Amino acid sequence: MTPPRSPNSRTGKAVTVPQTGTATPLRTSTAVVVVVALALALFSLSTVETLPVGLLPQIADDLGVSKADAGRLVTGYGVVVAVASVPLTRLVRRVPRRTLLCALLTLFVVANLVSAATPGYWVLLAARITVALTHAVFWSVIAATAAGLFPPEVRGRVVAGLFSGLSLAGVVGVPAGTWLGQQAGWRVPFTVMSGFGFLALVAVAVLLPSTAGEESHATGGTEPSRRRFLVLMATTALVVCGVFTGYTYITVFLTDVAGLSEAAVAPLLLASGVAGIAGTALAGARVDRRPRSTMVLAVALLTATMLGLALFGKLSFAAVCLVALLGFAMAAMTTALQSRILHVAPGSTEIASAVGSSVFNVGIAGGSFLGGLLLPTGFGVRGAVLLGGVLAVGGLSVLLSESWVVGQETRRTAVQLQ
Fold first, then answer.
1. What is the C-alpha to C-alpha distance for residues 83 and 146, in angstroms, rounded to an integer?
2. How far apart are the first and last CA of the chain?
3. Quick check: 18 pLDDT over 50?
4. Higher pLDDT, residue 42 or 52
5. Are 198 and 3 in contact (CB under 8 A)?
6. 243 pLDDT band (50/70/90 cuts)?
7. pLDDT tens string 134-178
């Protein structure tokens, strides 16, 4: 196996991707373009995922359905991603990555064109399910595919580059798509996202090596550990559930508890999204050197932010700062999480990423459900945020116990060998 060579961004010298018995040279500049294309695809997928939220009234009125039915276009999407990620990723694990990604992006392009031209609700729902199935596999394979184009020591920066697409979807994609849909009709943004997907498809088809993803260093964890991975998944479930117990109803919190006007909510959420871009960049710069501590710091910051909102959310200035900090910490945690998965995956990093995606989506759904239960009670939205903080404390405690859990396994193995 030929070892990877460090990229030279000044000269554009070849990056060698380790394969089984072969090496595929790829210029650093070309590899960067591939990552940008995959980030564009992730931007489009993430925008399409939540785009119906901002266009709910227009979709419901145009198709003659209730707002609750239109809302199921988002709920159903998340459920499909959570359920389908692992089995679908297992099913396609032997498909060459360029072929797979081109097929996924083709499905994405076609399904969004169908969404834009749909004559009725059920066709739109079917198109959304198709995009969700695409999302389930795409999310699972892109990190390992992109990381395999570069040396192992820059995995975190590659992941951060990919996830910039995710951050930009929240800051630019959904707000711009909502505005465009309100001005030109809800079908137009889906057509635009289909166009972005087509651009990504062309770049991947032309530039991604046919051998990408075949037994590169990124297909297996650098420090494989089943127990560390289970700790990471338990942490993710608790923290994401905790964050979304409160964040799902953040608009209600900001207006009813912090006393902000409805007009102030959108600019604040935009600021939170911009902070998220900074969180992605800073986590990416740090995570290659200190992967575990970056994850711990991000989770600790999320926990402190949720508890801070519960305790000081009545103060408008504190609420504004904490919501922006929440965007920063959530983006940093997501970047650190994917990088950590690539480190500790006990088997295939793609299957591990699929598990992580499922757990993340289950956390979102569970948090929204718990917050919805508390909202009409005497605890209200502030109680939902406090519960979210408590769940995040649980997640942080689990993460901090990682060394102890792994130590227990080591001691048990040592006793068995005696």
1. 24
2. 36
3. no
4. 42
5. no
6. very high
7. 998 998 888 888 887 887 777 778 888 888 888 788 778 878 888
Q: How far apart are CA 13 and CA 25, in angstroms?
A: 9
> 363-366, long-range: CB within 8 Å, 24+ apart, which pairs?
363/236, 363/237, 363/238, 363/239, 363/240, 363/241, 363/243, 363/244, 364/78, 364/240, 364/241, 364/244, 365/75, 365/78, 365/79, 365/82, 366/237, 366/241, 366/244
Q: Is the pLDDT of residue 410 over 70?
A: no
- Max Cα–Cα distance, the chain, nearest Å: 73
CA 338 vs CA 94, 102, 108, 388: distances in Å: 22, 23, 23, 22
- In the chain, what percentage of residues exceed pLDDT 90? 32
The closest alpha carbon to 128, from 62, 178, 53, 57, belongs to: 53
Please tell me the distance from the alpha carbon of residue 101 to that of residue 139, in angstroms, as a whole number: 11
Of 146, 110, 132, 128, which Cα lies nearest the Cα of 63?
Answer: 128
Of 18, 21, 17, nearest in space to 34 by CA: 17
Q: 3-state secondary structure string, 243-307?
A: HHHHHCCHHHHHHHHCCCCHHHHHHHHHHHHHHHHHHHHHHHHHHCCCHHHHHHHHHHHHHHHHH
Cα distances (Å, whole numbers) of residue 394 to 5, 158, 232, 359: 41, 30, 12, 16
3-state SS class at 1: coil
- pLDDT per position as a tens digit, 97-144: 889 999 999 999 999 999 999 889 999 999 999 999 999 899 888 888
Place of tokens 């480190």: 343
- Is the pLDDT at 298 greater than 90? The verdict is yes
pTM of the model: 0.77
- Contact predicate 395/299, CB 8 Å: yes
Listed in sequence order, the residues at least 6 apart from 243 whose beta carbon sits closer than 8 Å to its beta carbon are 302, 306, 326, 330, 363, 367, 388, 392
Of 122, 135, 40, 39, which is closest to residue 79 (Cα–Cα)?
135
